[in-house]
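anyone seen this seq b4? input:
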Amino acid sequence: MKATQELESWSNEYLAQGLYKQDQVTNADGEEADETTAQKLFVSGQGNYKLENPDYRIFIFGSYEDDRFSNFKSQTTIAAGWNQKLWEDDTSSFDYSIGPGYSFAETQAGEDFDSVIVRGAFNYAWFISETSKFTQTFSTEIGSDNTKSRAVTALTAKISGNLSMKLSLKLDHNSDVADDVDSLDTETAVTLVYSFF
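predicted toks r here
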């Protein structure tokens, strides 16, 4: 779920994502059983305070991620800094954020990876037609212990009224992981999207 809010002095973004997956596996006794193979929760919010030029903003950001099957049991980030909308017209838009912050992380083994970070992010949208849109988002959080990056590429096409179909590819990367854990996590999805406004 993604929501945006435009106020006179603030431009806000909220995101909540969850993933739960079960697969049938064959256990040591040769019997088939359901096993949880993915369980993830991610929530984030960013508030952009508009300055005299509303395209220039000061941002504050926070996120929390809980992933049962990644190297990190949980990752929490807070950051603040500069946000700027470079352009927004009938065909495309682009904005970026950059600033310092702090990351709190705990591995599955119970180790703490807390550090000062620098967070950078951008959002790009291309309005292909009245019924289709391409979006690309990217963020990275560079710290002394770990660099966490996320990229989401999506193509959305309107089906009817407020109902759309979305094809997306998400890449999550952590630079410092255990030897038996992949540093890159990929997720491809085809979803139905309903716009309330």
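Residues 39 and 168 are 19 Å apart (CA to CA). The chain has a mean pLDDT of 92. kinda curious what u guys think
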